[in-house]
Write a structure and sequence with these properties.
Growth Hormone, Chain: A, 2 domains, 20 helices, binds beta-D-glucopyranose, transport, membrane, cell membrane, MFS_trans_sf
């Protein structure tokens, strides 16, 4: 691909990835607001926890339905819907008058970020040439971590400027309301971008519009007419000609599903079960237990968010060079070691005023281990899981399979987030050991089950799927294998 077209596909991917920014922004903006909300509405701890976590359930629902709706409407229309829902969720949360309507608006925001998380990886991988696909799909994670960083920073700046999240700020509105209202900006930007982004060529072919798909591919990749036609032909062959994608296509011999769908579901669950969001959602209490003051603990969280951004850049450089599997294996090893160190450190904690405190040298050990954990995640499971989900499934089932796997990711996130407070009160060494166990299990799972997808054209992904379906006695695409060598080369050349 020449420079002009490379720039074009990068810009399109960045535009789509703004959905990831909304995802990261929404999951973190609540951090700065929640204490003031709790005071203003006089909430119990349980109701506060509910208001925080309910958006994760909304996200699971949004992810589940995002795929099927995009199959019908196209991916870019769902992006527009994401923008509209997020706009409604942000304005509604900002003007909430009780915990209950705030929870309802958070569900609406959750629906939108869930749908975005299921659509963006598929869209980017469907619009990218195979050689750049890892880097471009990793932009989703880049956008997520930037969203987390901007939300935390903005919470910090607004709190500093007004004197507290509960203090009145512009137009007599409390500061926490402005935090939510800030979500209007990315929502409007995303809606406007969605109107300009080209539809995914794979989606167009699957909806019978091959001419438009040829047009999009020529515009985005700048390939010759004949190369583009060969590629569109191979996409068409890889999609069942006789039916629209449906849940029936996911059926197979392993507990009712084709094994490749299980692989997606399990990696999506592992990404959360290693406990990454315990750091992002509850880090303030972690930093205090290693000896930081309350003020510095909040700065430490911003520093962690910056580390996350920087290491994601490293991952983007590595993903198409080293491949997906090596990164995941390195990440799982690093996470296992650092989580074991955290578990050991917390066996030495004493409880002072209800908070754990670590004596020397265990405070610094836990601090280094927690950061090593974030680095190990950010270079591997953070971006690579989204990349893999976007590219590991064949065209026929991608929308549905990514939706299911992503919904499982959100449910696992919910499970970890709501259980952490109780588990940590019971035993922090046990809690971190449990996350370490999942990190080790993820290592073994990747080693034995996760395929390498680096440089492989999307149309080739149907080979394994077809074998698995045949083994389970289910029918596969009526037409011949869509992954012909020539079409494969056409895409890989990208
Ligand atoms: C995960 C999020 C997490 C973020 C942290 C994402 O890949 O899905 O749950 O908060 O990474 O960087």
């Amino acid at each position: 691909m020449d420079r002009r077209h490379t720039t074009r596909v990068v810009l399109i991917s960045i535009g789509a990835a703004v959905g990831g920014f909304i995802f990261g922004f929404d999951s973190s903006v609540i951090n700065g607001a929640i204490n003031a909300v709790t005071d203003q509405f006089a909430l119990s701890a349980a109701v506060t926890g509910f208001v925080v976590a309910i958006s994760l359930l909304g996200a699971a629902v949004g992810a589940w339905f995002g795929g099927p709706v995009a199959n019908k409407w196209g991916r870019t229309r769902v992006m527009l819907l994401v923008g509209i829902l997020f706009l409604a969720g942000s304005v509604g949360s900002a003007f909430a008058f009780s915990a209950w309507d705030l929870a309802a608006w958070r569900v609406i925001g959750g629906l939108s970020i869930g749908a975005a998380s299921a659509i963006v990886p598929s869209y980017i991988s469907e619009i990218s040439p195979a050689k750049l696909r890892g880097r471009l799909t990793s932009l989703q994670q880049m956008a997520i971590v930037l969203g987390i960083f901007v939300a935390l920073l903005m919470d910090d700046v607004l709190t500093g400027a007004s004197g507290g999240a509960g203090a009145e700020f512009w137009w007599g509105l409390e500061t926490w309301r402005w935090m939510f209202l800030a979500g209007v900006v990315p929502a409007v930007v995303y809606g406007a971008l969605a109107l300009r982004l080209p539809e995914s060529p794979r989606m167009l072919v699957s909806n019978g519009d091959s001419d438009k798909a040829i047009e999009v591919l020529k515009h985005v990749h700048g390939r010759s007419e004949s190369e583009t036609k060969t590629l569109v032909d191979s996409i068409r062959k890889s999609i069942r000609s006789d039916s629209k994608p449906s849940f029936k296509d996911l059926r197979g011999g392993t507990l009712g599903l084709v094994p490749i769908v299980w692989v997606g579901v399990i990696i999506a669950a592992f990404q959360q079960l290693v406990g990454i969001n315990v750091i992002f959602y509850y880090s303030n209490s972690l930093w205090r237990s290693v000896g930081f003051s309350a003020d510095f603990a909040s700065n430490a969280s911003v520093i962690t968010a910056i580390t996350n951004v920087v290491i994601t850049v490293v991952a983007i450089f590595l993903i198409d060079k080293l491949g997906r599997r090596p990164l995941l294996l390195i990440g799982s090893s690093g996470m296992t070691i650092s989580l074991v160190l955290m578990a050991i450190s917390f066996t030495q904690a004493s409880i002072v005023n209800g908070q754990p405190e670590l004596p020397e040298p265990w405070g610094p050990v836990a601090l280094v281990a927690a950061n090593a954990f974030v680095v190990s995640f950010a270079v591997s499971w953070g971006p690579v899981m989204w990349t893999l989900l976007g590219e590991m499934f064949p065209n026929q089932i991608r929308g549905l399979a990514v939706g299911i796997a992503t919904a499982v990711n959100w449910l696992a996130n919910f499970a970890v987030t709501v259980t952490f407070p109780a588990l940590s009160q019971m035993s922090l060494p046990f809690t971190y050991s449990m996350y370490a166990f999942f990190a080790l299990a993820s290592l073994v799972f990747v080693f034995f089950k996760v395929p390498e997808t680096k440089n492989i054209p999307l149309e080739k992904m149907s080979d394994r799927y077809k074998r698995e379906r045949r083994k389970a006695g289910k029918s596969t695409s009526g037409s011949s294998d869509g992954s012909s060598g020539s079409s494969g080369k056409a895409e890989a050349r990208g």
